[in-house]
């Protein structure tokens, strides 16, 4: 995989946010370039070839822009030989609490995009419908433990056998890296215009036990891109025969 390819992917994924205000463009571009989870999703072929994807706490839709850009480059034959085919999402449905993010998403993708639909909503209350892949990237810790359990339970119910839930959490048992992580989270949330939030975290073992108790098989993988944080990617699958 060349630097040139990653640059093209980043340019394509950032394009919808261009002309949508300084913040929208630089937020997505910065996030997609520096956060390794986006690359890993494609490189590891984590998502199925086709399907309905639901992103909870989707912000302005950076993940969707990334997936659409990946598919476009793949179809144009501009794709690393050692990466699996880019997925071709049939529906990209996002639910985001903050209206400002939803408005930025609407400007980026357009109101009548054939694949993308991002709506304002609170994932602790919203109906998830049915999906083949559900993602929550760095948003589960914004509400309390009882709501976390309920959201995870409803995600499990929304997924078919073989379905995937991909999330990233902080490991509250990781000591200093975890506290650093939380400090940065507070700062970024504040800069994005929110009040300083209370964060509801759990040790990694507790996240895994909770997800397993709901019927997921869980793989864990640190996802910090060289930063001294305690972020863990959780790849949670509904057993195919369930
Ligand atoms: C750290 S940001 C990550 C945004 C996005 N996942 C990304 O990767 O760019 C967390 C997002 O979760 C949203 N959020 C927090 N609580 C939520 C809730 N109860 N329902 C829906 N969205 C929520 C926040 O407004 C914020 O946009």
UniProtKB/TrEMBL annotation:
Domain of life: Bacteria
Keyword Methyltransferase: yes
Domain Methyltransferase type, residue spans: 54-165
A family per Pfam: Methyltransf_12
Keywords: Methyltransferase, Transferase
Classification via InterPro entries: Methyltransf_12, SAM-dependent_MTases_sf
Biological processes per GO annotation: methylation
GO MF annotation list: methyltransferase activity
Stated name of the protein: Methyltransferase domain-containing protein
Organism: Dechloromonas hankyongensis
